[in-house]
Prior knowledge:
By secondary structure, this protein is an alpha/beta fold. It folds into two domains: 3-215, 3-Layer(aba) Sandwich (Rossmann fold), CATH 3.40.50.720; 223-430, N-(1-d-carboxylethyl)-l-norvaline Dehydrogenase, domain 2 (Orthogonal Bundle), CATH 1.10.1040. Helices cover 52% and strands 12% of the residues. The chain contains 18 helices and eleven strands. Helix 6 (128-141) links the parallel strand 4 and strand 5. The mean pLDDT is 95.
Amino acid sequence: xxxDDLLENVSVIGAAGKMGSGISTxxxxxxxxxxxxxxDKIYRLNLIDVNEAGVDGLHKYIKxxxxxxxxxxxxxxxxxxESREDLVENQEIIDTFVDEALGILRFDTDMNLARNSGLxxxxxxxxxxxxxxxxxxxxxICGDHTLFMTNTSSIPIxxxxxxxSLKGRIIGYHFYNPPIVQKLVEVISAGNxxxxxxxxxxELGKRLRKKLIPSNDIAGFxxxxxxxxxxxxxxxxxxxxKAEHSFAGAVYIINRITQDLLLRPMGxxxxxxxxxxxxxxxxxxxxxxxxxxxxxxxxxxDALMAKNIRGGQRVDGSQKDGFFKYEKNRLTAIYDLDEEKxxxxxxxxxxxxxxxxxxxxxxLPWKKLVSNPEKKTLLGAYFKRLQEIExxxxxxxxxxxxxxxxxxxQLVEDGVAGNQRDVNEVLINGFYWLYGPINDYV
Length: 442
């Protein structure tokens, strides 16, 4: 069994979703490359989703992405097609690649299309019961040779394996959003995951040019194990200060601390919106159940969901309203749960920035630091200064810095991560942090 053979017939379940569409595009690129090398072989990439409208739109999305890929890799494509004397101009090569890649694809809502697949990617929503149901159906449809990769971000792989009777033929392959852009993939093996599947997962990661980080098979894994607890920390701090600053004001303060003062690309509540408040709630439920930890729960998240404040992204990538109201993906207002209405961000900024305090003189925004070759030195000087100044913002930021470090260290102590480096690599590569949570800054 080798990866090339498995890629002759591949299926993606949940192909029209945010994660599934990205995974589908990545696999389409890889299979199209094999087709160029082996023009006489038949390749099939089956893209399956219950959403008929989504399936219809998926063809256009993948075509657009394939054109971008072809334009960026025109030099290597010209080499790949060097035996084709009929292809002279760059546009001819691009059009041929895209047409051949699209010719491999099959779109449908019927899971029976996966019957002959050697490899199946499961990328449906993060719902435990539904994933088990789908995997059970696939186990009946597919042969004993079929291997499965699940994009679950929190559900233990051993549990899915046992419930669906897959006998070690499933591995966790957690792409980060969006899969086309994000380099990180968390790889999670269960106790009985077949060795050959682990080897294939490693090889696929190399071909897709992904950074693979192993996580042990403990609910939440490294990424969501940290993110969920970081989110609960933000909520806890919000509840402590909301009486003095109002609910919306507390959201503003904590979000600004976690973005501006901790130098992250997004504040914690903006990140929860991005992931989806509903998804965050689902992750907490999965982790609480499998870890038997009732503290992995938030009444606040439940209250927002009860009011249909859900966050998340639309298919076109635009942001839905959640903690924040978004206009053209720009934060314009904050939801006040107590008042049951959105409050303009500018109104809160005028009222709260003076109480928040000044930024350290050494402060640089995330965008200016992310590619700075002196980043490490600048971060050291910045966080040293942050601990020396007074003010609400600085005090809460230092507290947050210490607590997120403890969260990271606990993941290692609990055996979720094999070492501190893996924790830091997931947060740096998957969440675009400038530094890992386990650091010497505090």
